[in-house]
Structures are given as C-alpha cells and as structure tokens.
Protein: MBL fold metallo-hydrolase
Amino acid sequence: MRVTKFTHSCLRVEGAGVLVVDPGEFSEASVLDGADAVLITHEHFDHLDVKAVTAAVARRPDLRIFAHPAVLKLLTDVDEATTAVSPGEEFEAAGYRIRAFGGQHAIIHPYVPVFANLGFLIDDGGANLYHPGDSFVAPDVAVETLFVPLNAPWATIAESLEFVRGIRPERAFALHDGLINERGAAVYGKHLESFSETRFARVEPGSVLD
Structure:
C-alpha cells in the first residue's frame, strides 16, 4: 500500500487499485487522475470538491464514489457512479476492503448544524490505515497507520493527542492541517511527537508513505 498525502485532508492510496479519500477544494487537481474509486467522509467543501469529482467521472465513467447518503445528494449529476454507505458497513473499493465507522461530524458548537461523517478503515490484506474524516471516532480494531486531524474549528490539540493515544497505532501522520500556518503546525506537531506514544510525523503535500 502506497499512500500519498495531498493538501489538507486528502489521501491517495495505490496498490491493489487507486483509491482517493476526500478530494476537497484544497486538494491538488491531479489527485483524481486515474482513480478507480473515491471515498468521501462528509459533505464539507474541504473534503468534497463537487465539480472536480463530477469532472473525474466524466473522464472515467468506471470511477466509483462511496459516501454517506447525506453526501450523495450533492452528486446527483453522477448518481450512476455513487454507492451509499452506512456506519458499520463493509465493502470493497478499488481492490481494498473498507469498513465505515462513526456516522456524525464532530460537534463545533451547539448552534452549528451537525453533519453526517464516516471514518474509513482501508485494508489491503497486509496493512491498514484509518482516515477519520472530521471526527475522533476510533475503530474497534487495531490500526497500523492513523491519520490524525491536527487543526480544525471542531478540534483541540488535546483531543488529537487523546485520539492517537487511545488508538495506539504503529504510526500516525497529521491530517486536516491546511487551516494552520507553519508555526502553529510545528507547535501542535511537537505535542504529538512528544506525547502520543507512537511515531508521529507531519509530512508535506506530495509526500509518499509506504
């Protein structure tokens, strides 16, 4: 399993097939090139670029999109390419075994509407990784590679740290880091490096992780 971290919260997984998670409006345009399947954790623009995904299906009609039913209402122009996913469901996409967790976006504030959100555990039979979307929902299985939200309106570094410590992955990488400057990322990252009790790193967009 070869994983490329793109800007903010987007991952591209290559191996059995090409799987893209959360191609949002901050993501590089190339992330969807040649993709076999797309997982979308929730409907916010930084995780779903509707125009880019729609254009990708037009270029590659075999492209499959998997997301919560609440997300699919934004993708009616490519309805034939979509599959609704519910929390707890297991399915195959681009040759990987996927399991969906959670169901709800982390709370920003009681005044702010709560959206559907799925975390995805991606397994290629030899390794796995977990992308939580905008939540701190932990899977109920061992996680080898965890992508942990570093900064968000709904998150604190204390929550990020507890998320990693609770899951105890073999390694962790920063996710959801496109809303913070380099100084802030360094401060947040230092806490995770020092106290997460696993190997943690924040990598630049375009970095490839084997």
Observations:
- The mean pLDDT is 97.
